[in-house]
Amino acid sequence: MSFSELKLHPSLLSNISSKGYETPTPIQVQAIPVLLKGKDLLGIAKTGSGKTASFVLPILQGLLTKPIVERNRQPKVLVLVPTRELAMQVTEVFKELSHNLRQPVKSMAVYGGVSINPQMKALFGVDILIATPGRLLDLQRSKAISLSKVETLVLDEADKMLNLGFHEEMQEIFDLLPKKRQNMLFSATLSDQLSGINRVLLVDPVLVQIEAKPDEEELINLSGYFVPDERKGPLLRHLIREMDMKQVLIFTSSGNKADKVAAKLMGNGIEALAIHGKKSQFARTMALDHFKSGKLPVLVTTDLMSRGIDINELPYVINYELPRSPKDFVHRVGRTGRSSTQGLAITFVTREETQHFKVILKKMKRYIDLIDSETMDFKP
Prior knowledge:
The protein is of the alpha/beta class.
């Protein structure tokens, strides 16, 4: 199927073509027609499957078909995301696909960690607002924005939105929105939280679930090592040097641990930086840009940050520490093995975590033989 068969506006098709996209992905093929009809949708597809364009294109098409109204501080579209990085990423897609439309569309991201005043000033005339929950409520309480005219609500990475302590903020936001609106929920995994919110938030929704094909899953090669905590640092440095890793994303359980791992790597001559929620927006953006461009070989991060790190051909992911949730493991390793490019995801497992790791692999329907690091010869 071609994008033209999805009955998208010619100007949108032109923007799609200019980005080099030739054919829609499975999630786009199934979701776009449903959303163009104005129906609610719950979309489930793996990371890197094209979920963002699945809601961006129908939203832009809807705005193109409506008459221009007086500019104000009442956006028609609200996209809620869990992290600043994802907010910026989604906004970039909106801007790329709304370039030179016959009817100008203004999209904007708002998030914490930066001054609120410039955001308050720039909100006037915004059609599409991409926001993290906390900053959105700050702006609403300051009367810089009104959500009373929102016609479309999107929850991107919805499973994370409903599982990160956002519950009270999300409920407060829902109460501010008009009852009649189109709702879109997108996630890489279908969880109990999504099933619950589905019954409350969506009205007669269409479920679009794209299962990963076996050959797609095999793009992510899994490897693992039994290693005690005190030997994880030396093993990490050994692997980076031995495999000559030029671009590796390392996951830890906390921001504090990410800082320690990055500092230890730097102290041993391996250039690395950490990004997490306690870092300034400038530091996070700079580190991510340098990592994406290849200037920085090692980036250490947390699960929260994983949703905003989108790199088409990332060769390596290392789980320095196991996540608590199998869903988080899927999101972590899903950073690699994208765009038809092979990737390797390496996991460090202590003996005490063996059963937990087996549960994770069972959920993924994968199996790997763990290498015992005690049999390896590397410097402590």
